Amino acid sequence: MDYNTQQPKLLMSEYGRNIQKMIDYALALNDRDERNRAAQAIISIMGQLNPHLRDVTDFKHKLWDHLFIISDFKFDVDSPYPKPTPETFQTKPERVSYPSRDIRYKHYGKAVEALIRKAVEMEDGDMKTALVEQLAHMMKRFYLTWNRDSVNDELIVQHIMELSKGKLKLADNFRFKYTNDILGKAANFNQRSNDNPPKQFKKSNNFQKNNFQKNNNRNNNGGKYKNFKGGK
Fold this sequence. Notes:
By secondary structure, the chain is an all-alpha fold. The protein has helices spanning about 15-25, 30-50, 60-70, 85-90, 110-120, 125-145, 155-165, 180-195, 200-220.
């Protein structure tokens, strides 16, 4: 018995050993025309073994590339596509560049820092004042998602000064939204969810209530055995 461990390694195991044997047989053919016919037949069988590749762009091109890979790039046939080389599949992909800029306060994120830089560049006026005030409310809300207990409004003002390098300042009469007002939306949503449960839960609760009432009435009336008399 031949074991797989005793046979040559499969270069593409998804096609199986029979395809590799067919390609090895075709490699030994001396007549080029006969090799071309064998290659076309092998390509047809490879397509049948992997029908999912039909949805891939350039389906035939991929099959021919796989044919050359399985032959260890030794198959000398007339391919309708350029013959690949080992270097084509050994080239490492280009390194993906990731942003290396540090975020001063991660709970605010990069978007808040970008908005602060934009506000610094704006000319003084109502638009700039409104943007800074909205930023202050936004930063307080983001801070509360990180620390649900409380937040000092003076701390938000300090962070705005730090991130803007002292170029942004809130008006003296500006007032932050109360913490309960910011967190109240989530609390109100949860309360509404409890007050208005989904229909399937309403139906289940009504069914249990009605079923309990029926059992209670049956017990009070003696149930189905109310005419049964004990004793002799």
